[in-house]
Amino acid sequence: MQRIFVSGHHGMVGSALVRALRTKESEYDLILVTRDQLDLLDQSSVRKFLEEKKPDVVINAAAKVGGIHANDTYPAEFIHQNLLVNTNLIHSAWENGVKRFLNMGSSCIYPSASKQPIKEEYLLTGPLEKTNEAYALAKIAGLEMCRHYRNQYGVLFHSVMPTNLYGPGDNYHRENSHVLPAMIRRFHEAKEANADEVMIWGTGKPRRELMHVDDLAKGVLFVLEKEDPPDWVNLGTGVDHSIIEIAELVKQAVGFNGKIVYDLSKPDGMPLKRLDVSLASTLGWKAETLLENGVKLAYADFLVGLKAGTTRL
User: How many domains does the chain have?
Assistant: First the structure.
C-alpha cells in the first residue's frame, strides 16, 4: 500500500482526488491535513511534515485560484503564494525521498495566442494571457521544477495539465469565480428573483473547454499508474463550446425563462482555448462526462450545497 499525500484536499480538485482515491482504499493510505495543521507557504514546516509522514507519493492540488477578476486584481498574491507552494512542496519532496510527485498544472498557462488545439509542446512558445499572467508564471515554474528535478536527480516528478474544471466544491463567488459557476449562480439568483434577464461578461464569442472535476480525478489516478509518464500531459475533453452555448446550457439546467444580455465593457479573456488530448488518448484515457449532463450535475450539487450551507459563495 502506498502512502499518498494530497495537498489542498479541501479544494475542488483536491476533494475530487480524495473521492477517487477512497474508491481504491486497498491501494492507497491517504495523508490529509488542513491549512491550520500545515502552512504550505512555510518551507521549514513543509520539510518537517514530509520528513515525519514519509509519503510515497505527493499530489500537489494546492493553489491560489480564481477567475479573470481575481487574477487581474490580485496578481501579486497569485504569483507569490503559488510560487511558494510549488517550491516548498517540490524541493522538500526531493529532500525527503518522496518517490513520486504529481503536480497540477492548468490549461490557462499556455500562450494566449496558441495554435488550437493546444499541444503539450506549445508551452512557453508565446506571450501569456495578461489577465492571468501572474498565476500562469507561478504554475509554469512548478512544471519546470518537476521536469528539471526529474532530469537531474532521476526522480519521478511530473505534471498533468487540466482544462477548465467545474463540479462539486467549485467556487460560486460573484466576482472571483470561473465562468461556469459564475453563470450557475447568476441564473439561479435571477430565477429566484423572477428577473427578466441575466448579464454575461464580454461578447459571448470566446470558446472554452470544460471538464467535470471527477473526470480529472480519474485521469490523475490513470496517470499515476503509468511507470514512465510524460513530463506533463493534457487532461481535457477535447471539445470546446462558446460562452453563449454554455450560457444556454446553464439557463436550461436552472430553468430560467428570461433573456441573456452581454456586457461588452467586460473582458473576454482568451478568444479560444481547447486542449489537444491526443497524448492522453494514446496513453489510454478519455473524459467521460458530456457538458450537457455535467451542467445538470453541477447545478444539482449547487442546490444541495445551498441547502446544507456548504456552497462556496
Answer: 1
In a domain? residue 97 = yes
pTM of the entire predicted model? 0.93
CA distance linking residue 262 with residue 176, whole number of Å: 19
Cα-Cα-Cα-Cα dihedral sign, residues 159, 180, 73, 123: positive
Q: Residue 187 burial (CB < 10 Å; 0-12/13-18/19+)?
A: buried
**What's the start-to-end Cα distance of the chain, in Å?**
38
Q: Model confidence over 69-116: pLDDT tens digits?
A: 778 888 999 999 999 999 999 999 999 999 999 999 999 899 988 999
Kindly report the CATH number assigned to the domain that includes residue 280: 3.40.50.720
Residue 265 lies in a domain: no
Active site residues: 135
pLDDT in tens, 176-200: 778 899 999 999 999 999 999 999 9
Domain extent, residue 120, equals: 2-167+211-238+274-289
In a domain, 18, yes or no: yes
